[in-house]
Structure formats: C-alpha cells, structure tokens
User: Fold this.
Amino acid sequence: MSDYILQQAFNALSVGGEYALLALGLAIVFSVMNLVNFAHGDMITVGGYAMFLLLMFGVRDPLLVLPFGVLMTVAAALLLERIAFKPVRNASPTTGMLTAFGASIVIQNIALIFGGSRPKAVPTADWIASSISLGSVQIPIVQVLETGVTIAAIIGLVALLRYTTVGLAMRAAAKDVPTVRLMGIKADRVILTAFAISGFLAGLAGIFILARRGAVDPFMGFAPVLKAFVAAVLGGFGSLPGAVVGGFALGIAEVTLQVVLPQEIAGFRDAIVFFLIGVVLVFRPQGILGERPDFGEKS
Amino acid sequence: MLQLENVHVSYGPIKAVRGVSLEVKGGEIVALLGPNGAGKTSLVSSVVGLAPTSAGKIRLDGADITGEPTERIVTRGITLTPEGRRVFADLTVGENLQLGAACRKDRDGVAEDLETYLELFPILRKRYAARARMLSGGEQQMLAIARSLMSRPKMLMLDEPSLGLAPRVVDQIFELLHGLRSKGLTMLLVEQNANEALDLADSAYVIASGSLVFGGKAADLKASGEVMEMYLGLEGH
Assistant:
C-alpha cells in the first residue's frame, strides 16, 4: 500500500510539475505585458511537430531531438511576439487576448492542413518508457525526469530573476514599465526575454507531454494549457510563485482524487477539482499567492 | 544643454502644454514652477519621451531628440526622477540602484558611483538589502534620486521631489540638491515649493494652463510680487 502511495506521489509531482512549467510561462508573459497568451499551448504543438519531423527524417538521438523541440518552441514564442503581439502591444488587454486566440487558430489550422487531424504516433526511445526501482517501487523514468526538470527550471528562473539585470528589469516591469524605460532599459528586450522564457518552459513541458501521449496532433497543446491557466488563476494570476504553487496544487489534487474516488464517480474528477478551485476562489478571489489590487495608486 | 522650442503636449483632444520654449544651460539649475495641473509633469515627461510631443522641438546638446524612445533618450545622458518617486517597491534598495545603472557598460564606474552615492545617502547603505516598499517616503525619494544618478546623467530632471514629505524631510532633500549643485550637475527642478526651489535655482520658469507666464532669473522672480502671488500663491519679497 505504501508503495502505491509513493508511486502516486511521484505521479502527482510530475503532473503538477507540468502544470507549473506551463503556468509559469503564462504568468511571466502576463506579468510584463498584461497579455493572457492563449496561444501558449500551440507553441507546444509547434515544438511537438518539430520533434516529430526530425524523427521522421531518421534523427533518433535524443540529444538532438529534444533540444531541437525546445529550440523550436522558443522560436515559435519569439515569432508570435514579433508577428502577432508586438503590433497590438499598446492596445487594450482584450485586443491582446483576441489576438492570442487568432494566433492559436492559425497555428492549429496550419497543423491541420499539413498534418491532418489524426494523431501521428511518435516513436519514443525505449529508455524513456522504462522505470527505475526505488526499493520495491517502480517509478516511470518520465515522472522522475519531469519532476527533476521542473525543479531545475524553477531554480534557474529564480536565479535569473534575482541575479541578472534583465531579470530584475522583468520584475520591475511587472509593476511599472515606464519607469523601467527611464532606466535606459529597452522595453522591447524585456518583453522578448519574457517570451523566450515562456517558450523555453513550454518546450520543456512539451517534451514530457509528447513522451506521455506518444503522438502529436494539432490540438495537443490546448488541454494542458487550459489546466495551466486554471493553475495560474488558483495560484494568483501574474504571480510567479503563485503559478508554481497553483500548478503543484492542481496536479496533487487531480492525482489524489484519482486515487481516492470510487470507480463509479472517477469520471467526475475534473468537475470535483474545478468545484474545489471555485470554493478556494470564493474565499480568496486573488488566488493563493496573488495580491489584491492596490486601489488609489497611480499606475 | 537642453532646449525646448514651442513644445506642445496633447493627450488626444486634451492639450496639456501649449507652446513652451525654455532653455537649460550646462551647469545651471532651473526651477519650473506653476500651480497644480499647469502642465509641468507633462512637459518634463515629454522631454524623456514618456508624454507625446505633438508639436515643437526638443534638443539635447544640439541633437533633436523629439519623439525618440525613452530608453534611447536616457542613454544620451538625461533622466527624470518621476513624480511620486516610482521606486520598484518589490525590489531591494540595492536592486533598484543596480537597475539605475542598467544602461551602462563600465562596470568599474558603476561600482565607483554606487560607493559614492551610498556615501552621500547613508540611509541607503543602512537599508541596502531591504525592499524599497519598507522605506519611508523621504527614504524612497532619496532612493529615486540615487537611482537616477546611477545612470551618470549629464542632466537630471526632478519632478516634485518634495511632494508629500514632512517639512524636515523636505529640508533634507533640498540640502542634498544643494550638494549636487556644488558638484556641477545640471538640473531642471519641478516644484510646488517655490521658495525653496528659487533659493536653489539660477533661473526659473513659471507655467500656468500649459503656457509660460514667466521666464528669467530666479532672483527676479522672487522679487516680482505679482507673478509670485498670482501663480504661486506666495507673497513676493
């Protein structure tokens, strides 16, 4: 029994880690430019298809395929910023959100036209499907890697935000862009960096999404990012620690319910999770770590 | 050093500044005075590109900087300590100062300046690791000024540095500005506190409803009872 709990604990951490990576990406873009990037999931799709294509061309070495996937996800994020979001940077948040939906539809349809709507199997290496033994417990290696990568990415991000000038500028820009520009810092560079980071985190998450599903399809990024959005709201939208906490809280809640719910009502898992989140938000509308908006302050 | 020629600032249909011309010479302190809503903040914001200049020319050392992006203007050597201080509240004092020097490449010079200003503002050394939001209003104002100076500007514009501060703290801030003046820093000072500002300044301009109503020596303005009384609500001397 305790073996089973340990297994499920790792499962919860890895699911939570995936949500945390994606929620962080959403939050970092939102914090510097007040944009809810609903095309975030489609960046994962781009990365997924990029890895799929490379595998189709016979490149099997994971040391080539995986970095290529991440790189293409970052490239997709930067291109999205340049082509779609930069022209509407000073427009209202609603315009930005609609632009994101538009970009999402465009990417999904490009994938539909060239790839078709049916999922395409991606051959994953054997080692990624294997497990490691922890005493008597078998833990899938994907889960171990995903948890580890998430923790490493969070540590790296914290270091970047604390110790580099561009990181400090991003934290400052989350509250006051004009004053950041008064420091002689290019707003453009701060925004591009935010998109690059969000793309990088999405690329990492994308690898694990692909490893679990074993297939690519045009809508593969949609569901995970919807969950990540919920996680970000739960943690406090725009708050980076909130995104991490919200991601793990959602992952843990999902897996816990999966374990404890009797078979007959297991299908209602998501409904119960969302109900619980609703209850949390009734009592803490700003999310777990979100700040209440300051009223009466000049912005 | 800085020349404004017939500058207009409009926000859509609202005209905040209607054709102001003024000049700040190198090494000079200029006070920009006027009642609330006269357009003082709009005018200095337009110099650094944070408010839209709808007509007119702004020149820095002869180069036309009208309409340039803020970050480029700042790297040319002019900066603004904005109204309301606008320190980065969630960042530490040290991080605020580090961002102030973000546009500079000379690491040694930055370290040197940091030491200079921590010497000049001892409270900032004492509270170096504290978040800026924990500082008092006066301390935040000192941080905002030190942060501006970290970019090693040729010219500093200050927008209402004494706003909302206790009289004792206002005196401290002006003492500091006198200190900066003796180092030869060129300054444009926007103030409500006309008497203190005129003691510091070499020349002064008064704007009301977006237009200049006085321009000349600070001493002449102090002597002109009419302008002082009408626009600044003060008895002339």
